[in-house]
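Progress report, Aim 2. The chain analyzed during this reporting quarter is listed below.
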Amino acid sequence: MYSSRTVIKNKYYNKNVSPGFYGTDVWGEADKYLRPYLIKGMTIYCEICGFTPDGKFIQKNYDYGCVPPKNGETYTPEKHFKVRIYRITLTNPDGIVHEFSPSEVQIWCKTHNLHAVDEFYYGYAGDLYPELKQDINGEPMYCEDWFNEFINCLANDKDFYMELKSPDCVNNVPHEGIVIKQDKMKSEAWKLKTFAHLNKEQKELDAGIENIEDNA
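Predicted structure tokens for the chain:
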């Protein structure tokens, strides 16, 4: 079974499913790519990027290093579209769910020659910007002050391509942002988008340009 958000896209389970936002079944293509690696009870969560089988952008103007397929050409992973895994779970017959930690997701993908989302940094948040451990008077910072300064540093960190061109795309489009996850057996994530990407989204919304997230 494969789905997008809350909608089951596999027509054998959902007979009323339509081609959806793209007009083609990009989710089915990702399913064909990942299915050989699934074991009983496993669920893989991923992003699909690049182009659809009929040559449309999956995310407007974001090519992610892919090229649109030519007429009659086989729709090929890593050439025409990419699948990037960000979460994996295992559910046993009693319904108990085991959540892979972020590091386990990275290791599992490397073991199976699949691609996890890019990992820019792994470690303690407090070690990323050691200069934030004290305020201007040399005193330890209050937790709330530290958090605000930490987010401000992240939002302007060029090592994470914040407010820069997307490092994954040939086209000149803004980097979308970063996601922070805690390395524990619980699915929690926080997304920090760049202002450039937020402005792009707002302009498209004002122009009436739809995207898959608005139609999920």
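DSSP finds six helices and seven strands in the chain. The mean pLDDT is 87. These observations will guide the mutagenesis work planned for the next reporting period.
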